[in-house]
């Protein structure tokens, strides 16, 4: 039931500290400084022999796959490719031996994701599901998998399932990393950071009032750009998708540095850009990209770290989030973007839980 909330989407956004906690419950192993999963059905030999990972899904689940690519490559040093399930199923790419294929899906019923997994399984590859709905078609079709335990997601726009997917992918990166070269100490450090995550997300939710003010200012925009780099590039794509699907405002997500290769031509006084720019390796570069937008008169909304002293001088509006390590940032920085799309959609009179033309699970190809 909705309880104190006006919409399922808002309820599910607010459930995220808890849903992330549930994704981690029983899966962090302090003794061995690794993650444990009950249902991967992989022997240690099979695990070690993995040479490549394919992550596939659709929509928001495809965005979490992009986060997974950064995570697994950085922490486990296993090459990862991310594929739209709808393309993978017909593209017939050569897939090397010892490739592990993960289908990522909230509903477990998405027709293209199911077909992509079936096709790769038919060719003899091991297929696993990262899935929310227990005993769904994809969970059953895969050789094994990891459940999100996020609880039912009713709002059509995916929110808590996305952050839980990112969290499960982070734990998988830890797990694969620890079977290879990640040290005991590094594993322990990683677990500590994961344990801090629910509190960080809780703190990120306190930006709600600030986000409402930003929503009022920009709810009449016709195009919004979302820009971020590295771990926050997928966040830019996800922020843009959330805005499109529930407020019907045209939005595009880009790696911030790609701006100057075309999209910057869209910038004018009526076209706001949302920069996801927490402190980290590319922070200064993204600030430079921000200056380029500002010089062309584009309004700037920044999602930034609490203690960033320079951001107010450039951005028109700043939404502050707690600082977490780069590889966990997507789970925190997406929260204000979920809220922003929610408040803008409300101001525009849209049906946030049931946006036009969309279904919660897409069971046709
Ligand atoms: C976006 C959204 C969709 C789904 C996509 C995949 O908010 O909900 O883009 O993410 O249809 O659905 P699942 O994850 O159920 O396979």
TrEMBL record:
Please tell me which top-level EC class this enzyme sits in. Answer: transferase
EC annotation from Swiss-Prot or TrEMBL = 2.6.1.16
- A GO CC annotation given for this chain: cytosol
Ranges where the SIS domain occurs: 43-182, 214-355
Q: Which UniProt keywords apply?
A: Aminotransferase, Cytoplasm, Glutamine amidotransferase, Repeat, Transferase
GO molecular-function term, one example from the UniProt record: carbohydrate derivative binding
Where can this protein be found?
A: Cytoplasm
User: Which reactions fall under this protein's catalytic activity?
Assistant: D-fructose 6-phosphate + L-glutamine = D-glucosamine 6-phosphate + L-glutamate
Its subunit composition reads:
Homodimer.
Function in brief: Catalyzes the first step in hexosamine metabolism, converting fructose-6P into glucosamine-6P using glutamine as a nitrogen source.
The name on file for this protein is Glutamine--fructose-6-phosphate aminotransferase [isomerizing]
Species this chain originates from: Rubripirellula tenax
Gene symbol here is glmS
């Amino acid at each position: 039931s909705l309880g104190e909330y006006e919409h399922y989407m808002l309820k599910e956004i607010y459930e995220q500290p808890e849903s992330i906690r549930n994704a981690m419950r029983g899966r962090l192993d302090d003794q061995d400084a690794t993650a444990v999963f009950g249902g991967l059905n992989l022997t240690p030999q099979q695990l070690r022999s993995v040479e490549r990972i394919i992550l596939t899904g659709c929509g928001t689940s495809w965005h979490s796959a992009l986060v997974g690519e950064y995570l697994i490559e950085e922490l486990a040093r296993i090459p990862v490719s991310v594929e739209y399930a709808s393309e993978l199923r017909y593209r017939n790419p050569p897939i090397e031996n010892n490739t592990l294929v993960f289908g990522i899906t909230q509903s477990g019923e998405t027709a293209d994701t199911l077909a992509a997994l079936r096709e790769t399984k038919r060719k003899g590859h091991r297929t696993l599901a990262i899935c929310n709905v227990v005993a769904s078609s994809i969970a059953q079709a895969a050789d094994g998998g990891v459940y999100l335990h996020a609880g039912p997601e009713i709002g059509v726009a995916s929110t808590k399932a996305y952050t839980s997917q990112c969290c499960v992918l982070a734990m998988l990166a830890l797990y694969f990393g620890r079977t290879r070269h990640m040290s005991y100490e590094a594993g322990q450090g990683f677990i500590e950071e994961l344990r801090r995550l629910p509190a960080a997300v809780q703190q990120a939710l306190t930006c709600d009032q600030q986000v409402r003010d930003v929503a009022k200012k920009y709810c009449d925009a016709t195009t919004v750009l979302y820009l971020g780099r590295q771990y926050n590039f997928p966040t830019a794509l996800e922020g843009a998708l959330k805005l499109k699907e529930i407020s019907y405002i045209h939005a595009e997500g880009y790696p911030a540095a790609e701006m100057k290769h075309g999209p910057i031509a869209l910038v004018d006084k009526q076209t706001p850009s949302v920069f996801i720019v927490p402190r980290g390796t590319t922070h200064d570069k993204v600030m430079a990209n921000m200056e380029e937008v500002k010089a062309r008169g584009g309004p700037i909304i920044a999602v930034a770290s609490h203690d960033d002293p320079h951001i107010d001088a450039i951005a028109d509006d700043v939404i502050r989030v707690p600082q977490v390590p780069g590889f966990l940032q997507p789970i925190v920085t997406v929260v204000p973007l979920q809220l922003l799309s929610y408040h803008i959609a409300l101001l525009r009179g849209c049906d946030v839980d049931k946006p036009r033309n969309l279904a919660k699970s897409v069971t046709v190809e």
